[in-house]
Amino acid sequence: MPRRLVNMTWTKQRLNNLFFCIGITAVVVMMLTFDVSLSELWQHVCHAGYWMVPILGVWAVIYAINAMSWFAIIRSTDEPDKPVTFRRIFRLTISGYALNYATPMGGLGGEPYRIMELSKDIGTQRATSSVILYAMMHIFAHFWFWFASIILYLALAVIGDLAMTPAIAIALTLTTVFCSAAFALFAKGYRKGLAVKTIRILGKVPGLNGWSRRFLTTHEAQLKITDTQIAALYAENRRAFYVSLALEFASRIVQSTEILFMLLLFGIDCGGGVEGITLAFLHSVIILACTTLMANLIGFLPMQLGVQEGGFVVSIAALGLPPAIGIFISIICRLREIIWIIIGLILMRLR
Q1: pLDDT per residue over 197-213, tens digit each?
Q2: Element (H, E) at 23
Q3: Where are the domains of the chain?
Q4: Gap between the Cα atoms of 308 and 95, Å rounded
Q5: Long-range contacts of range 194-202, CB-CB < 8 Å, 24 or more positions apart?
Q6: Does residue 286 contact residue 150 with C-beta atoms inside 8 Å?
Q7: Against a cut of 0.85, is the pTM above it?
């Protein structure tokens, strides 16, 4: 084996070990910073009971949908001599999100890890472009989910199910403006690409200016190719683009069932029956939208420590439900995250 290839393999293995150590550290930090004692945590788990099974299991479905979204992007530029299996993408999806939860700024761990691992299958260039494209799609779907939730809230307010106060009206207006600005930014990004521009923006961060210049000097040609592929996905392969977007949006809807399970656990079924459970599910969608919006606005904390909990409490209270339910939901969701982080780390070590 050529020495250069041996060095690259050794470097990737060291990086893999680094990502693994970061994940383990994050799990330890999360366990030590829980707002409840182990006895109280166990009481919450016992309260959840058998509902913990669907709460944990629904995330296998969510990650599978995320993997299908990423797989659709990879297949849009597939090369017959460099195939990649869905099983491989599913594993990298779970491990990548485990690192995203564990590291500050969300994607500083997951995305580089996915590029490093996927490059073994399809080469660095295609791996980089597919990961960037998927990351863009993941964020793009967030904005569509928040925007759709605004429409849903207004519809429920019109029929008298939810309140419309001046504070809520201001919040909905600001979120609408925020989403509209993001739609315009992504429209430009999908037409012209964002890879080169992203590296230049990072160069404005204190301490990263020198790295940005060096990276652009060395990889500008490859980054421009990536930008070309980003533009090509939207301009030339609309089917793959919309399939990926629809799948990412669907994953948010499926994620709302996690909150629905916990509302049903407390007997909150809006009167019961099909209509009542449907209404409870719509409330779950709004709760998730409010919580994820807050968590992403302040996304520089590992696992959004404290932000997710606050988001659940605020959104639950806004719907007129007891804040204690929001605390319970946040604790169970935090425990679920830790369990799936551990699963992701285990998958990183499997060969």
Answers
A1: 766 765 665 665 676 67
A2: helix 3-32
A3: 13-349
A4: 21
A5: 194/132, 194/136, 194/227, 194/230, 195/129, 195/132, 195/223, 195/224, 195/226, 195/227, 195/230, 196/220, 196/223, 196/224, 196/227, 199/223
A6: no
A7: no
